[in-house]
Amino acid sequence: VIRITVRPRRPPEPAYEIRIGRGLVPRISVDLRRRRLASRYVIVTDSHLQRQGDGLLAAFRRRGLAADLIAFPAGEESKSRRVRDELEDGIIRLGAGRDTALVALGGGVVGDLTGFVAATFTRGIPYVQVPTTLIGMVDAAIGGKTGINHPAGKNLIGAFHHPVAVYADVDHLRTLPERHFNSGMAEVIKCGAIADRGLFEFLEGHAARVARRDPETMARLIEACCRIKARVVGADPREASRRKILNFGHTIGHALEVLTGFRLAHGEAVAIGMAVEARLAARAGLLAEGAAERVAALPPLFGLPVALPPGIDPQAVLEVARRDKKTRAGRIACALPLRIGAMASRGGDYGIPVDDALVLEALREARAARPRPRRLIAPAGL
Ligand SMILES: NC(=O)c1ccc[n+]([C@@H]2O[C@H](COP(=O)([O-])OP(=O)(O)OC[C@H]3O[C@@H](n4cnc5c(N)ncnc54)[C@H](O)[C@@H]3O)[C@@H](O)[C@H]2O)c1
Ligand SMILES: [Zn+2]
Questions:
Q1: Please, which residues bridge with residue 342 across strands?
Q2: What proportions of the chain, in percent to the nearest 5, are helix, strand and coil?
Q3: Burial 179-193 (b: 16+ CB within 10 A, else e)
Q4: What average pLDDT does range 85-109 have in this prediction?
Q5: Which of 297, 346, 366, 375 is most buried, by the most CB atoms less than 10 A from its CB?
Q6: Nearest-atom index, ligand 1, CA of 109
Q7: Which residue has the higher pLDDT, 370 or 63?
Q8: Is 351 in the pocket of ligand 1 (CB under 6 A)?
Q9: Global pTM?
């Protein structure tokens, strides 16, 4: 089992550990019992994870912990005020009070919603993250951002509240649908591109091993990503700008999500975004041309797109990206790589303003890109 300590600065909450490995489920109840964290637990999960939820609940009860389970319908639509209300009603009905802790078993939807309820119920109770998706393990479960959606926008209502522990059990990845797995791989590629050259090169050489979700390989990848996120979360407030490096691929990616009505999975949009922003970095004289092509060549090895979806107009992408908050005096600001594994900064700021003309050129280049014929991902089982 790999352990990583996170020391949150915003808000300054107690340090907590991320544990990464296999077969962690029995361990969770043992740890919580030893820590005397709460006198009762409510496990929160979604309708696709009933079996895993029942297993965790049984493990808690075997250890003599008072525990219950609440499951809500799977899907982003559940990150809503209505389901938040239902969850609050549910835990109150189960007798929850200040002495209760929540356990979020699921992907980012379960984690964000459960964390938000934990942040606000009696002004804050502890919660544990048990991410079951790759996005959850490398991103959503770490960093203390919790929240729900509002009809006016995603993640519009939320709070910072860090978990007291994170258990990333790679065995959960076995049942994750392929599109969700691949989407998570976009964030792993991002971590390599922004801060870990060794990780990036490992991905270039081992796509087949990743595709069959080899547990040791996956644990290594998750560890590398968690170390990067833990470093950013624990960074001195004076270095606050450094967290912008996590936005690589997201300025263009988010505009594409909006323009396609969220039909692209988040990771698919980020993959295209990284290819575009890497070429943008090359045009801005930051990243070498060859390195930009390596960034654009990696996502397709993991079933991810890098070309603009048909019918998406570069000018429209630019307009939506500009409406985003990341603009500097009318120019778009992006997190741009300087080399593979290192991001560019100007005067300590990692949001680099770029001219519209360069953005349009990089977008047009992505429109022209044809998917490469070579296929390096071996079918599972080979
Ligand atoms: N808080 C943060 O910092 C942060 C960071 C990134 C993303 N997010 C949020 O996370 C959400 C996306 O998270 P996600 O991609 O994990 O989506 P998700 O939680 O919707 O899970 C994806 C799907 O996979 C199913 N599933 C989960 N684990 C499974 C498993 N082991 N086997 C089989 N099926 C499984 C779920 O039921 C769901 O249908 C978004 O709402 C996003 O805003 C938050
Ligand atoms: Zn993301």
A1: 339
A2: 50, 20, 30
A3: ebbbbbbbbbbbbbb
A4: 98
A5: 366
A6: 19
A7: 63
A8: no
A9: 0.95
